[in-house]
């Protein structure tokens, strides 16, 4: 029987559907992946109650809200206090995981010594904040709610953008010689120069998502995605989204 997977989003995109359906075809897995638009939490509850999808990916702004709808939580979701991955566990309902946490842990190791600025106040910004707290790193958090938005590009060595605003190359931050590490979580960032053209280490949302995807795929299917297949998926995705 064909298995169904999907993503829950306020504004669905094509990244997950492309990655998953490409992988399903290449690995001869009888499954499909669809993007589902949800505006309110009650819509997600109704969707989960039907138990139709074997696995569901969760995007903002629902990553924290959906915790209360899970039957159980994996340690990763408990530590992150958010979930981006739901797995149907038979009649008992869905277990929540956070493969976001895995990706955060991988990329935090690439930070350089120095000041870190985190832009945003959503689930991803809070997750970075929590993991930096755990490691004893110093950082500054910037958001409109904190009334320090205008200072978000203060001098720093590491810059992490967790907002949908994105970063432009003409931003004052890129004029600062101190900057050595940039993570812009937009899947298709405004800053699109080749990484070889930057004087700093530069990661985008697709770099983050490929870690999320590999771990999420294993949770959903109990199969590994090889690095060769991942590279092919990214190459084809970039071609179609050029």
Plain-language structure description:
The two termini are 35 Å apart. The chain has 242 residues and is of the alpha/beta class. Helix 1 crosses helix 7 and helix 4 packs across helix 6. The chain has two domains: 130 residues, 3-Layer(aba) Sandwich (Rossmann fold); 103 residues, Rossmann fold, CATH 3.40.50. Helix 5 links the parallel strand 7 and strand 8. Helices cover 34% and strands 19% of the residues. The longest helix has 17 residues. The strands form two sheets. A six-stranded mixed sheet has the order 2-1-3-5-6-4. Strands 8-7-9-10-11 form a five-stranded parallel sheet. The relative contact order is 0.13. The chain is built from seven helices and eleven strands.
What's the gist of this structure?
The chain has 242 residues and is of the alpha/beta class. Helix content is 34%, strand content 19%.
Contiguous runs where pLDDT drops below 50 for at least 5 residues: none
Shape estimate: globular
CATH architecture of the largest domain: 3-Layer(aba) Sandwich
Q: Structural class, from helix and strand content?
A: alpha/beta
Number of domains: 2
Q: Helix amount, in percent?
A: 25-40%
